[in-house]
Amino acid sequence: MNVIIGRYVPSNSVIHRMDPRAKLLTMFIYAASVFFANSSVTYAMSTVFLFILLLLLRVPFSFIMKGLRPVLWIVLFTFFLHAFLTKEGALLYQIGELAIYEGGLRKGVFISLRFLLLIVITTWLTISTTPVEVTDAVESIFGPLKRFRVPVHELALMMSISLRFIPTLMEETEKIMKAQAARGVDFYGGPFGERMKAITSLLIPLFIHAFKRAEELAIAMEARGYRGGEGRTKYRLLTWGWIDTWLLASTVGMTIVLLLFRT
């Protein structure tokens, strides 16, 4: 299962060399701006801006799309769910009890596109930023919260570990599905009850594997003397440059223009 969400792809692109704080803030601001998009023009602006960011990665676009295939079915399900259940505007097409209205079609396209853009911008961050850099960026941005006794370092570490283990869990899911299929389990056919049993035979081993991985990671960190972020020093220091300011200013500018073009 070729999943690239949560996976770092080495490259010498300008995005890879940027300060991780700039990339993390760009992701947050862009994700927030997507929720303000409510028309074809605003969604087109968001899509074009993200496409430019992907071009700057210098990673083949086909490679990115291939890695997003496992989540495309969720995007399609979101589209059809809104297309058939939202009954707004003029009736466009009807087959028996199923009807597609103009408002439902528009909402289905917008919501599914929003979901896809959020996935892609997250992938853009993880492709160009190592888990260590993500941890350092989160800890630096939310560092002032330490005054209020918020465990910023631990939260940042949890976030980076979660991103890192997404491809690992997806690969384990594929292995379990192949093993269960070899035993005669059908995940895609049969009655609804049989399919639920098949999913149960997948989820239980997957949860056991996840807990086992978490325990192994905890033991490894403890054996290496990890005691939290208190008193820790950093081997690599983050440096903010003009290109980071340019990226952040471009994202903020795009968001402002998007708000002006809202209907």
UniProtKB/TrEMBL annotation:
The chain crosses the membrane at residues 27-56, 68-85, 105-127, 237-261. It is found in: Cell membrane. This is Energy-coupling factor transporter transmembrane protein EcfT. Transmembrane (T) component of an energy-coupling factor (ECF) ABC-transporter complex. Unlike classic ABC transporters this ECF transporter provides the energy necessary to transport a number of different substrates. It comes from Anoxybacteroides amylolyticum. One of its GO terms (molecular function) is transmembrane transporter activity. One of its GO terms (cellular component) is plasma membrane. It is a multi-pass membrane protein. The gene is ecfT. InterPro entries: ABC/ECF_trnsptr_transmembrane, EcfT. Forms a stable energy-coupling factor (ECF) transporter complex composed of 2 membrane-embedded substrate-binding proteins (S component), 2 ATP-binding proteins (A component) and 2 transmembrane proteins (T component). The lineage of its organism: Bacteria, Bacillati, Bacillota, Bacilli, Bacillales. Keywords: Cell membrane, Membrane, Transmembrane, Transmembrane helix, Transport. Belongs to the energy-coupling factor EcfT family. Its main location: membrane. Pfam families: CbiQ. It comes from the Bacteria.
